[in-house]
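Section: Multi-chain targets

For targets with more than one molecule, the full set of components is provided together so that the structure can be written out for the assembly as a whole rather than chain by chain. Components appear in the order listed by the source. The example entry contains two components.
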Amino acid sequence: MAIDKKYLTNRVTGEIGQASAIHFPKTRQEVVKIIQEVRDNQQKLITIGAHTGLSGATFPDDNQVLMSLEKLNKIVKLDIETQTLTVEAGVTIAEISNFLADTPYFYAPDPGSKAASIGGNAATNAGGMRAVKYGVTRDNIRGMRVVLADSSEIQVGSINRKDSSGYDLKDIFIGSEGTLGVITDLDLKIQPKPQFTRDILLGFESLTSLAPKVFEILSSGLVPATLEFFERDSIAFSERALGLAFPKIVGQAFLLITLDGNDSVQLDKELTYLTTLSEHALVLTKETRENVWQLRGAIVSSVELETIQEPLDVVVPINSVAPTILALKKMAKAEALSAIFFGHAGDGNIHANILKNQLTDEEWIGKLNKYLDQLYAYIAKVGGKPSAEHGIGILKKKYFQNYIGKNELSAMKRLKSVFDPTSLLNPGKIFD
Amino acid sequence: MAIDKKYLTNRVTGEIGQASAIHFPKTRQEVVKIIQEVRDNQQKLITIGAHTGLSGATFPDDNQVLMSLEKLNKIVKLDIETQTLTVEAGVTIAEISNFLADTPYFYAPDPGSKAASIGGNAATNAGGMRAVKYGVTRDNIRGMRVVLADSSEIQVGSINRKDSSGYDLKDIFIGSEGTLGVITDLDLKIQPKPQFTRDILLGFESLTSLAPKVFEILSSGLVPATLEFFERDSIAFSERALGLAFPKIVGQAFLLITLDGNDSVQLDKELTYLTTLSEHALVLTKETRENVWQLRGAIVSSVELETIQEPLDVVVPINSVAPTILALKKMAKAEALSAIFFGHAGDGNIHANILKNQLTDEEWIGKLNKYLDQLYAYIAKVGGKPSAEHGIGILKKKYFQNYIGKNELSAMKRLKSVFDPTSLLNPGKIFD
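Its structure, encoded as tokens over all components, is:
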């Protein structure tokens, strides 16, 4: 049976790879069997979640065997007493959100793609909008079951709230992009939904005038649930794609801030404080709120409709956000490259999406590579990291290897060799 | 030069070990040199923080070389822009707290012993009183420098707020009890101090009537900064030792709850809710507050003045706290063993301190071992863990090894072999 082209495609570059087979296991036992088979046949295995990744981590570049976990997709158990939701790896973020909609609980991480699977989120340590208050995926997983390359199964983490009983195995597998083991099911931390939310949009003349306000907010003791920034030209893509209008507000650069909590009086007080940070402040009504968040959420997919893009997810220390954005803009201008900038200001996580537009393939590759060389050199210089939340995959591998310390890379390679000595699982991803 | 007996003593059992030498490095470079020397001489090395551990993790049972980091004790840098405090491993919790006293920031973890070093806290993933709201040590370390057994130095973690760039090396070393590397300096997460705090004491007839209230509080959406429980007989030790009186309040079992935040109106509302949970509620004044916390903090050291004790720090899922405490009490009674129970109710972390009192050494060992066998079997049965915050060391090794899965133990041993193939660092601790 032919393999659906979707699974062979690098979503970012459009490149088509080759795989020798694809499997759709429905149980952990089937995962174990597939790993055994692949090992016996001396093949290599790539595990796929929902194929929404942006770093090429599941791209078959060497005729590997593919294993999509999309049918390992049961919601197993809601345990309100320990505030734990147990799900299989193929369950999507949207399914988790829908499942919890009628309960008093929510799963806090809110990554861009709601079509992403929770297993993929764990494998990349996905971040998202609410990380500034609620942490990233890592912070919201209590335990997991993982099948190792030798097909043995291990339990990592647990539903206990504290643990100093031996080495922390859980955090090794989170963010390991399918290279150390296959995550089959997860115990997620859920928590009581806050009773009230407030959303406010602050307009600024430019990112230069916006940036200092981020530090001011974070230092004030106020912990917003989200603290997003974007420019008018980013949101314009979503406006065109969705046919929705961004609210009337003066400015070229915006902060979109959500407050949540159980005390509406306190939230209103915090809101009042936030309105002092810009002459152009718009508290969102229920209706505009939905529009604005839809527009914000659709930036990446809307750009995709108009041009090829290189979606970057660098992270820098929070006091470097402002100079970094300005420097990255300046570099793009110098290369005559179009780029949009947005991201999670509260975490220092900057999305720079570089746009191909009318460039020929050759121009695009040439300019892009030149730009990326400069960009990642800058990020390393200010103490940042190449990936905040998408992972390294193959697309950022070169830059990751260039800037990580020799001893740190050696430690990671040793980890790989111990859990997957024959490099059975997703070989050649993250590092060579 | 003779080695001060303190460093040779197992603080819990009183046992005296033997070491071949002791070093007090003052810089990371000296740590590197000591590791090289120990390796060249085919010796073994035990790293000591402030010698406050409760699991025998630094006990020299085989003539090892000791390295105390108490002189590696500089506060290196306060970076308010990234809210990071960089310190060397030998700095104590009290020193960090004093240093930050005049700033608007605090380091959230509040482990029992303020004399403990931050390096020791990281090595055991220390928990403490405020974990229910602010997390454990793991959650409050941004980055660390670690010297490995081959004397290479690595940077793990960073001051970036998000990171999906390769494997998470940081969390491997946190909680590894000096067996994988030597943590020399740390970048700690600090955060703005909450402006207001409220403390309330709730009295109950017994732990049986207290326990359900813990779940009620945690489910209400309220996130207390601390949620401690203890019985009157625990606090009686502190009253005798400190010459302080516990406030007049009806009850045999108590919840001691701290709320903190920036909105005093909201805190008062939460306080009002808490007073509905018991007929005997006492909102603490500034004066009683200090007394009560001193009494709570002094339980372990006060018991130490009267008798030998075995201080346990088991953890169970939060819905098992009530039945577990009752079961452990019942087992102690059946063995005619004195025991006190207290702990961090919000985390499921139960301290059961078993008291030797008038028992002969032989009776004590016999009864204690019988009790521990039953206790750890029970903890495993309800899905708990032998150590929430003290670590395994040597004292809990047997039980840890009994109840951890075969594959999980094998994974941990593989980790050890990767970072310390000749078992140079703290051999025989955590597992054989």
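Chain A has 14 helices and 18 strands.
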